[in-house]
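Morning - cytidine-5'-monophosphate inputs below, output right after.
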Amino acid sequence: MTAPMIRDIALRDRVIVALDYRDPSQARALVKQCESHIGFYKVGLELFMADWFYTVDWLIERGHQVMLDLKYHDIPNTVAGAVTQAARHRIRFCTVHARDTLIGAAVQASSNTEILAVTVLTSVAATSDNVEEKVLARARRALAEGGAGIVCSGHEISRIRTELGDQPIIVTPGIRPFGCGGADDQRRVVTAGAAVAAGADHLVVGRPLTKAVDPLAVIEVMQEEIVKTVDG
Ligand code: C5P
């Protein structure tokens, strides 16, 4: 099997820090600690429920890229409306479940925001029925509907690259750096280096940073792994 293409992405944009906090001030404190090294942040359901678009807009004003990870899953018309609202905030990525015709509806409404299709959550075990086939089928359909990329675990990246090529953006959560605690509720986990070697463009990392005593040290370990992988 040939090695996947490794896209030329700035090191500070490879890791997307998941700001999974109920308290926005804690999220902002982590950003201030990390922003010398990281320019890409994810706002998910917990923080969004706390302060709606305030942290999103604050991140963008500071010059960072934002992934809004609300994983929309509703009827196409409602998803399109929600994407239109999100796209007003200059976010880079917006996530939508890869079901029915939702990706197509989201893409129609997305203006300058890229739609990422959530395939199968990384908290689902690899042993549960046909995860890899489901990821592949959902990814194929989402891309055919115009999605910019997909969210999948490190376990499926090689297959996606082999079957669907270099074009789609692949964003991979379930990253567990060596020596950084357990997998928590994640089931399909890989290291940062393994994900990039398989062909991931961006890695989503939450608890290994939000629970770390020294998040910057963890980031440095992951970035070192990534550089080694990219440089071969
Ligand atoms: O803390 P941890 O690194 O496991 O966080 C992973 C983050 O990625 C969480 O914010 C979670 O919502 C998100 N995510 C995921 N699996 C997906 C899509 C997003 O874990 N398939």
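Note: Residues 18, 20, 44, 69, 118, 121-122, 151, 173-174, 184, 186, 204-208 surround cytidine-5'-monophosphate (CB under 6 Å).

O.
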